[in-house]
Amino acid sequence: MSIQKLLENNREWSAAAVAKDPQFFSRLSAQQAPSCLWIGCADSRVPANEIVGLLPGELFVHRNLANVVVHTDLNCLSVIEFAVDLLHVKDIIVCGHYGCSGVQAALARSRIGLSDNWLRHVQDVYDKHERGMVGLQDVARRHDRLCELNVLEQVMNVCGTTVLQDAWTRGDAIEVHGLIYSLKDGRLRDLGMAIKSPDEARGRYEEALSRLDKTATAARS
């Protein structure tokens, strides 16, 4: 698709937005006041605002390959800090998706290039949970499971950041959630990991893992 086509599409979108709501852009330019930070995959098939039915300005978004949260990634950490300390979001969502190409590359130990270094974090998730993964004979199920496990681990990484730890210490009411999106039906699934304080992080994590284990056992039987 050419740049000219994108510019044409933009003009049409802008005109349609004004026709529907003449004050749309004046309100949007005045401030952004999202109540939620979305940390998701850069995959073009997972547009954050659209799949949760929110307009521009209603969701603060950070996306990267395989929705990874790394404690040395100043880009991601800066977004989290901005969302928490300046925008005062109440919820942080880590959203993965089934069919993630980054997770697939990590699972297959494929060599892509520079991305291999980034996806090493997802390989570490596999290595941590390898005992449970090897019991899944079907490749598609292993892929789905790693997508889910990756979300749980990244939720824990968000909770472990100094930004969240400091916010919770101050008494800020912030809840971190783990969701996963299906490309097949466009539905989000709650992985049952909602964390509101550092004290409950480990327990919520273990509960979510237990639910995944039961699902995997049922699938094998």
Write the layout of secondary structure elements.
Layout: H1 3-20, H2 24-30, E1 36-41, H3 48-51, E2 60-64, H4 74-86, E3 91-97, H5 101-108, H6 115-128, H7 130-133, H8 139-160, H9 162-170, E4 175-181, E5 188-190, H10 198-220
Parallel strand pairs: 1-2, 1-3, 3-4
Antiparallel strand pairs: 4-5
Helix pairs in contact: 5-6, 8-10
Structural notes for this entry:
With 221 residues, this protein is α/β, with parallel strands linked by helices. The longest helix has 23 residues, at 198-220. The chain folds into two domains: 1-30, no CATH class; 32-220, Carbonic anhydrase (Beta-carbonic Anhydrase, Chain A, 3-Layer(aba) Sandwich). The mean pLDDT is 93. It has helices spanning 3-20, 24-30, 48-51, 74-86, 101-108, 115-128, 130-133, 139-160, 162-170, 198-220, and strands at 36-41, 60-64, 91-97, 175-181, 188-190. A five-stranded mixed beta sheet has the order 2-1-3-4-5.
